[in-house]
Amino acid sequence: MENKRTKIAAVGNRSDAGMLLGAPCAANDKFWRWGDDNLFPYALALMSRRSTTHRRIINDKADYISGKGFTCDPEAVMLGRFVGCVNGRGESLRQVLNKLAFDKSLFGNAFLEVVTDAAHSFVSLYHQDASRCRVAKDDTHILLHHDWASFDASQAVSLPLYPLFEERDDGTLRSIIHYKDYEPMFEHYGVPPYIAGFNVSAIAYKTDRWNISRLDNSFQLSGVMMLDGTVDDDAQAERIVRTAEEKFAGNPGQVMFVLREGSENDNSRFIPIASQNDGDWKSLHDQATSDIVIAHSWFRSLSGLDYTSGFNSERILHEYEIALNTVILAEQAELLEPIVSVIEEVGGIDASSLEIVNRPPTRSKPVYMKVWEARKADGLDYDPEDPNQQYFLSQITKYNVTSID
């Protein structure tokens, strides 16, 4: 019997267009590219929206770094008013600091615009979205543009790096502060500390997406559907395959349809692809989650990962203290020092008493306990008659500080 060759007319194969990060950007003599295609911030932002653990850590780090508000000398009235409203949008200093901390945690870079006038009669602080900012080729300016995938120099805004100021059409003097995380071999932009875990963030996202696709397809078997038929041309075969995919393949394409011609008999059949790797996928997801926490130099209990095993307040407090002394205080100092400098040098306001209020996410003892009661609860020596032990815990901690939001 003569063997007839089977001709594959069309194969269904839908790609995931959501992973596209944008078209490459041509080299430009006006700015330094941020990434090979100048769209690296877009890739970082996209991944932060897709990986749940990754996004949770970024959110939490920004909240811890911006603290619970500010405290300052009660007699520094002008400083208190400024901290309560730092710009024409009515934002408080904490709101602006939270955005800076978020950008720096996500991009490894953050930008703060400073606005004043020739007489320095006022000073305002505005956060600028880091994804909109690029370093100019002269290394003394920052260019702001709404869409770097299609850069138009006529639509870009140029601001000098602090302490340089330039006058704008409205008569104001403007400058911008560039925060960036140091990374060897990177001069113009910082690199986020979690960069070593960028791939595992993608793994966590993909394992989540895999579970969603299984749920969308009611946990049915994946496979290949072989269809026998005769078509006039390849275009008709393509239309048949796409129609079958839309109606029967599920989302995002659990079944691949193959249309072939050349068979004498109808040999249409479904070829299942059995998978017994559920445990491997779960292990991969768990490992990726752990690696994300490590890459961020963060802690599991502060990321909401261990609540299912019980709420351990002592562990949370312990890890918060470590995070406070290794990550939070250092980031706060880096963000706050230029702000204090601007307030004093541009605004002429003494900001030496300005401090961020830090509070742990939980407390081991209520603030209404007295010192001797707390010492008794901890099994330490105590004296109810000692005047120094008559203070409430709220009186010897920052819990009693009135924060300025």
Structure description:
This protein is an alpha+beta fold and 405 residues long. Among the domains are: 7-15 and 222-273, no CATH class; 31-197, no CATH class; 365-405, no CATH class. The protein is built from ten helices and 13 strands. A hairpin with a 5-residue loop joins strand 5 and strand 6. It is flat, with a radius of gyration of 29 Å. Mean pLDDT is 79; it is low at 1-26 and 398-402.
Question: Can you summarize this structure?
Answer:
The protein has 405 residues and is an alpha+beta fold. Helices cover 36% and strands 16% of the residues. The radius of gyration is 29 Å and the shape is flat.
Low-confidence stretches: 1-26, 398-402
| Radius of gyration from CA coordinates | 29 Å
Termini, distance in Å? 87 Å
**Tally of contiguous helical segments:** 10
Structural class: alpha+beta
Gross geometry? flat
Order of helical and strand elements: EHHEHHEEEEEEEHEHEEHHEHH
Report the helical percentage.
Answer: 25-40%
Q: Specify the biggest β-sheet.
A: 4 strands, mixed
What is the mean pLDDT? 79
Report strand order across the widest sheet: 1-11-10-12
Give the quaternary arrangement of the chains.
Answer: single chain
Number of strands: 13
Strand content: 15-25%
